[in-house]
Amino acid sequence: MNKITKLFNIKYPIIQGGMIWCSGWKLASAVSNSGGLGLIGAGSMYPDVLREHIQKCKLATDKPFGVNVPLLYPNTEEIIDIIIEEGIKIVFTSAGNPSLYTSKLKHAGITVVHVVANSKFALKAQSAGVDAIVAEGFEAGGHNGFEETTTMVMIPLLRKIISIPLIAAGGIGSGQSIYASLSLGADGVQIGSLFAAAKESSAHENFKEAVVIAGDGSTYLTLKKLVPVRLIRNEFFNTIHKACIDGKNKEELLEILGRGRAKLGMFEGNTNEGELEIGQIAATIDSSRSVKEIMETLIEEYGITKSKMSQSLGI
Fold this sequence. Notes:
By secondary structure, this protein is an alpha/beta fold. The protein is built from 14 helices and eleven strands.
């Protein structure tokens, strides 16, 4: 048992990212049932939809699971209230100030984790009283940090300055990368892209197929004038990225972006005109597998890597 398995009362220190349009109750419960920590992604759910997913997840697993809450949406207060009403015990917050809701959540007996992309916000989150931090590197899919710091650089950097449990995220999709993350000072890992393409993911099959066929260089970080986001290169990406290069202002970019672009691509399956948010690790994903198979492979690969590294060092 390490700090993360103890904190969440789970078997393996593996957390499934609470990704928009991917992380419904089926994915979260499957991960939790396989020994990890499943997260429902509240970012793409209206409050009543979130309540439904929480209730269905309770029926599908008797293991711990949590909810990821991006703090940038106007209905965040209602989302937080539903989480408390439903008795959720683990909440991951992101994309906002951790001091806004941490005290309220902890007062309700909830374990709180905040996602950061740099040392400044890691210290801010620790000061706000969160129980753990997710350090998300530049490799990750979806919304990203402006600094473009890689996971391999960020983990040892943050390990030196924070005392609470540290979870590595971004570019992690194998037992080997889990071993590397723990070696660098992480206490656990959060995996997104690998689970986004899982059979239990609520994403559209067209999106999963786009992830499977993605190769080296298929994703790119764009929209830095708004919020940096890593996307698969498609027709929409070409349009919005050209607008960025051409120096369009924020208002012009927002007009091109429109509304519901991520839903169009990831949930409705329009792989030409929709946003396809995924990490660089997509280049290594060659099939859509069940969560059970994914978890078993991760644990097996980790064990082999641990043994191999011990032999390499002559220990």
